[in-house]
């Protein structure tokens, strides 16, 4: 099977995770950010991830892909229960994290920005959505302080480094991609158990962190 992705995309990380957690091979195909033709031809819209199954059928939507792959062999790994407090935490951090992440992602060495036009496409689209990147970068100290306070509230919610609730669940599929994205932000102090969870989940899911792109 093939999975069309952008490396920076947290929804793509969700889809990538299930293959790593199940030790199932997958061919990753990174699209240029301004390539509208390929995804439109596959699913009728510009969005990723897109899973192309063995029979050639294309499937969008990260959670649909996760559930399909997890259940395909009759041996699901995401069997744990979810904790509403994790969803609440993610919603809170999602309300401001784009201001920290998108300006840094825009200048990082991702394969989806291999051409100048692909990078410009991303910058134009995202600045139209969240405002001027330079202004958000200038406010980084305040945003990092808010994030560090929220990371302190996440710490007691982590039951195990192997799975946030003690047993793998869809909470891990939602939580790790955000923590992985945040690894591009320099100067963020994580509680020890949050950092240990992030590192372990990167290992288990076979999705590396972005520390080499830290800004």
Automatic annotation (TrEMBL):
It comes from Serratia nevei. CDD domains: GST_C_GRX2, GST_N_GRX2. This is Glutaredoxin 2. The gene is grxB. PROSITE patterns: GLUTAREDOXIN_1 (PS00195), GST_NTER (PS50404). Residues 1-77 form the GST N-terminal domain. GO terms for cellular component: cytosol. Signal peptide: none annotated.
